[in-house]
């Protein structure tokens, strides 16, 4: 059966994901193949997302890409790899459909515009959402229906996990060609509705060591990283999958914190050492442990990526109290009305007993704001043509 002609302008959105078993280190730089499997939670796009429009036309003379309104160098090897991969899949797809004539659209050049609804500099995983969105949008425009892990992964390793909603594992695979290094959904976004996520944005500074260079240095110099990949991660993947399936928050939270800590330990074990956490990150870590000790159980868990921002997991019955604890420990500077973004949180009064256990010296302004969110779905195609980021001339529309 002949497939419908794909539309020539498509706009899609894709989510941010946060790893609870971290990816850090490649066994193949070119193909972006990891030294260990990883597992992430997809965050809801109501709060954090990338939006991408792709258009193909016989009138375009070259491939062009704009990110947040600024034209990017199309020669970037990772962009090139994504474009090459998607066109390769499109060629395969069309030759299995009717055997000979390639669709004209494959010879057309593509224009792509992408924006994030959150500050790239905030250190949130913008490249994962961005490259997942690119892969998904290009697939729609070229009529590709295959699995897209490889296309997204070639852009940024963690991007393949943003192709699915809910809870997602990236299986490291064994094959040298990487065909089995793919992302798979472990559980859908509806699986654990009580699970909530707070992003504590502590710094908008650009990070010192990029992830790609950082993990390269760790692979070259850290014996701990090798040990982690071989002796720790396989069992941890199995165990955290069980915790997710059984909605065991205690187990999930403890493993999440341990894995974040081990990732940052491998950074310190890298030579010269890499440090992504700052004083505020460490204060948050201690605050979480004191809060859990007060309750006599793991009610809240932290994880940190290649930057100082904390991502907190908790359940809906604990969100209000923990946000009050963060406010108490890191009082907002200024009016404080923009301190909390996203899902609503009710104000609560903290007991004197809890305040005494926390025993914090308030550190005003160290947490700049909180994004309150939850687990969310994978990439989506938008129907409304008004939402296209490219105009009829194939150039980015002026920002509203
Ligand atoms: C992760 N991070 O699993 C880990 C945890 C950061 C810390 O994946 O070189 O941008 O593009 O494959 O995916 C960040 O690294 O690196 C990352 P590349 P990527 O989310």
Describe this structure in words.
It is a single chain. The relative contact order is 0.17. The two termini are 42 Å apart. The chain is an alpha+beta fold and 400 residues long. The protein has 9 helices and 17 strands. The chain has helices at residues 77-98, 126-141, 149-155, 211-221, 223-245, 249-269, 279-295, 319-329, 352-358, and strands at 9-15, 17-21, 26-28, 33-34, 38-42, 49-57, 64-67, 70-72, 109-116, 167-170, 183-187, 195-201, 300-304, 310-315, 340-342, 369-374, 380-381. 34% of the residues lie in helices and 21% in strands.
Task: Describe the structure concisely for a colleague.
By secondary structure, this protein is an alpha+beta fold.
pLDDT < 50 runs, ≥5 residues: none
Work out the radius of gyration.
22 Å
Give the bound compounds: ligand 2P0
CATH level 1 class label of the largest domain: Alpha Beta
Report helical residue fraction. 25-40%
Q: Please tell me the CATH architecture of the largest domain by its name.
A: 2-Layer Sandwich
């Amino acid at each position: 059966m002949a497939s419908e002609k794909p539309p020539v302008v498509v706009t899609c959105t894709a989510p941010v994901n946060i790893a609870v078993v971290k990816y850090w280190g490649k066994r193949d730089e070119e193909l972006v193949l990891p030294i260990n499997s990883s597992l992430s939670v997809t965050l809801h796009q109501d709060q954090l997302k990338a939006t991408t429009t792709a258009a193909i036309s016989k009138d375009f003379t070259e491939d062009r890409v704009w990110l947040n309104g600024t034209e990017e160098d199309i020669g970037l090897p990772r962009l090139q790899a994504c474009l090459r991969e998607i066109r390769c899949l499109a060629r395969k797809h069309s030759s299995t459909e009717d055997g000979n004539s390639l669709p004209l659209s494959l010879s057309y050049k593509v224009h792509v515009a992408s924006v994030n609804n959150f500050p790239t500099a905030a250190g949130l995983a913008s490249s994962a959402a961005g490259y997942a969105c690119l892969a998904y949008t290009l697939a729609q425009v070229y009529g590709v229906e295959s699995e897209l892990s490889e296309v997204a992964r070639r852009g940024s390793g963690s991007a393949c996990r943003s192709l699915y909603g809910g809870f997602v594992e990236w299986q490291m695979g064994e094959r040298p060609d990487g065909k089995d290094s793919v992302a798979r959904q472990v559980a859908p976004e509806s699986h654990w509705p009580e699970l909530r996520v707070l992003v504590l944005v502590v710094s908008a500074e650009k990070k010192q060591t990029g992830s790609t260079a950082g993990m390269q240095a760790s692979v070259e110099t850290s014996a701990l990283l090798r040990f982690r990949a071989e002796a720790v991660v396989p069992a941890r993947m199995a165990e955290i999958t069980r915790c997710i399936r059984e909605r065991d928050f205690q187990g999930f939270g403890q493993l999440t914190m341990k894995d974040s800590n081990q990732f940052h330990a491998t950074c310190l074990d890298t030579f010269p050492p890499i440090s992504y956490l700052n004083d505020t990150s460490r204060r948050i870590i201690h605050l979480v442990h004191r809060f859990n000790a007060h309750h006599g159980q793991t009610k809240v868990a932290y994880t940190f990526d290649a930057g100082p921002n904390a991502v907190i997991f908790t359940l809906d019955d604990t969100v209000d109290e923990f946000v009050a604890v963060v406010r108490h420990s890191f009082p907002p500077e200024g009016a404080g009305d923009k301190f909390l973004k996203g899902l609503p949180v009710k104000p609560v009064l903290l007991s004197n007993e809890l305040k005494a256990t926390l025993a914090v010296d308030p550190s005003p302004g160290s947490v700049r704001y909180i994004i309150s969110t939850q687990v969310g779905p994978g990439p989506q195609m938008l129907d409304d043509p008004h939402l296209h980021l490219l105009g009829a001339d194939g150039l980015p529309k002026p920002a509203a």
